[in-house]
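Sequence design from tokenized structure. All designs in this work follow the same two-part layout: the structure record, then the generated sequence. An example of the structure record is given first.
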């Protein structure tokens, strides 16, 4: 998992792509590669990259499965790592770096290897480098978790790579067959020989296509031969079959039959996977389509009013974001407690800034709160009857004369234990809205795990209650003063409000009421809110 390994894997990936694409083309279509050619130097660089990779495999930790146990463990013992590598991938890696290029570079200049057909057959040994492609499985496993790409994208990329590489390799096989079985149509200078009489034993699809055909393309140009071979391979795999390139002898017919069988299987596999890929895409979208069909059928059978059907369909369409959040929380529940809390916290981080008494709470408290939050979805113009701490996750909500958007909170006074000092104004969802709710009892229980957070919560509850009591008492005192000539004090009004609450058999906290009464009485002789805050005890009752 080190940074070096991640970047070196990119280098290995480029080297593997070069090996899978360039090496077959070079072996089949390019006659000779001199020691001064750029392709020769690139091949040596690629060989050096694989040598470094082989050396690094003796030191990399590898996951292994223990017999009789589930899961994997990370093997760190270097001796066991080297022993395991020597008995698994090491022989394949060594074969992949054998210097066939250098050996055949010497043999290409020898007189007894001047025969083009013989030389081309012997050079096939260089294709043993393709065993390096097997290393891609290890790279894919290492990068699958690091990239985080969706499996739809991974499958689409895999199908594309398999189809392109299969077409390329089949073109190389078909080109090798025609060049090996057919006569040499080029002279020593690389120009096409015109008017060459070709005996029957030297006929191939290459000679049939290029000999005296009048085509501007030349069989002496490797790219022209490869283009014709690729044209044939794509026609064969996709089962189009124009018939402009066809076998000319028995050996070519046999190769053609084998290629058609392989291409048919590959194309059927690709079509089947693409159909599965298209039908099993987004699970939320698939669930939405299934629910929509079921809803339409039930509304038709139940004779639901046509004017209401559209609103039901619209709600189901807009609730896909709610379904995504529900699926995400279900997946997060399968993680370990620490990872689950971190995942949920990433989606709920904004409410810690919207609620002032939770702004300084540590992450472990926020993660515990995120696990207890419930998710609700509301339609347009629907009233929200929640007496919990609520956060707007999506949509627009109107509450107490304010317009709330994603990231805003309401009902923050739910932590006040005295119901007479709470305020739950009429709250309406103006659009399709997703709201996350936190039960007050769970909020107090979780915050009680940290003394500092508990103290902040209690002081916030006391301040909110004092502010509500001051406002309610002042308003009640004003109305009483209008009815009589004598203005009552705030403490007297407070006693009246509390007595009325007791008459209604409300559950109260005597300790909180005593603190509130003392604070209200103190307001008769204080003139600022700071003076009131100084009168609050350190740990008042909520």
């Amino acid at each position: 998992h080190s940074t070096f390994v991640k970047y070196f894997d990119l280098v290995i990936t480029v080297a593997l792509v070069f090996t899978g694409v360039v090496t077959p083309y070079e072996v089949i279509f390019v006659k000779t590669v001199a020691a001064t050619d750029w392709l020769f130097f690139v091949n040596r660089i690629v060989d050096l990259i694989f040598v470094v990779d082989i050396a690094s495999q003796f030191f990399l930790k590898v996951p292994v499965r223990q017999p009789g146990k589930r899961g994997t463990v990370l093997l760190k013992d270097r001796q066991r790592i080297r022993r395991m590598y020597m008995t698994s991938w090491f022989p394949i890696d060594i074969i992949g770096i054998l210097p066939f290029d250098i050996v055949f570079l010497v043999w290409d200049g020898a007189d007894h290897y001047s025969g083009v057909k013989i030389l081309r057959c012997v050079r096939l040994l260089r294709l043993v480098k393709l065993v390096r492609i097997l290393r891609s499985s290890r790279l894919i496993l290492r990068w699958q978790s690091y990239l985080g790409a969706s499996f739809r994208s991974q499958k689409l990329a895999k199908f594309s790579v398999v189809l392109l590489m299969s077409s390329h390799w089949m073109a190389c096989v078909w080109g090798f067959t025609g060049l090996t079985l057919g006569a040499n149509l080029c002279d020593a200078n690389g120009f096409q020989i015109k008017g060459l009489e070709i005996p029957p034993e030297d006929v191939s699809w290459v000679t049939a296509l290029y000999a005296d055909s009048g085509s501007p393309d030349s069989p002496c140009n490797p790219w022209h031969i490869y283009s014709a071979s690729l044209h044939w391979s794509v026609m064969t795999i996709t089962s189009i079959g124009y018939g402009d390139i066809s076998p000319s002898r028995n050996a070519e017919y046999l190769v053609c039959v084998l290629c058609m069988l392989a291409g048919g299987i590959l194309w059927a596999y690709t079509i089947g996977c693409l159909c599965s890929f298209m039908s099993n895409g987004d699970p939320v979208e698939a669930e939405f389509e299934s629910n929509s069909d079921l809803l339409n059928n039930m509304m038709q059978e139940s004779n639901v009013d046509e004017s209401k059907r559209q609103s039901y369909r619209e709600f189901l369409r807009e609730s896909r974001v709610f379904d995504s959040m529900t699926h995400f929380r279900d997946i997060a529940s399968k993680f370990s407690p620490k990872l689950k809390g971190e995942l949920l916290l990433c989606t709920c981080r904004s409410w810690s800034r919207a609620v002032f008494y939770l702004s300084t709470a540590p992450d472990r408290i926020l993660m515990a709160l995120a696990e207890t939050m419930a998710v609700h979805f509301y339609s347009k113009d629907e009233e929200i009857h929640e007496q919990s701490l609520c956060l707007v996750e999506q949509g627009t909500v109107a509450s107490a004369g304010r317009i709330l958007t994603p990231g805003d909170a309401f009902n923050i006074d739910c932590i006040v234990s005295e119901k007479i000092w709470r305020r739950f104004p009429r709250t309406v969802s103006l659009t399709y809205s997703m709201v996350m709710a936190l039960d007050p009892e769970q909020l107090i229980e979780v915050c009680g795990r940290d003394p500092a957070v508990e103290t902040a919560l209690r002081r916030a509850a006391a301040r909110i209650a004092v502010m509500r009591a001051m406002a309610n008492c002042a308003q009640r005192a004003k109305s009483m003063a209008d009815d009589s000539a004598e203005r009552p004090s705030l403490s007297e009004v407070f006693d009246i409000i509390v007595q009325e609450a007791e008459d209604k058999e409300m559950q109260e906290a005597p300790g909180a009421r005593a603190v509130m009464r003392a604070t209200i009485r103190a307001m008769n002789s204080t003139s600022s809110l700071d003076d009131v805050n100084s009168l609050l005890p350190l740990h008042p009752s909520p």
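The chain is about 60% helix and 5% strand. We note this feature because it recurs in several other targets discussed in the main text.
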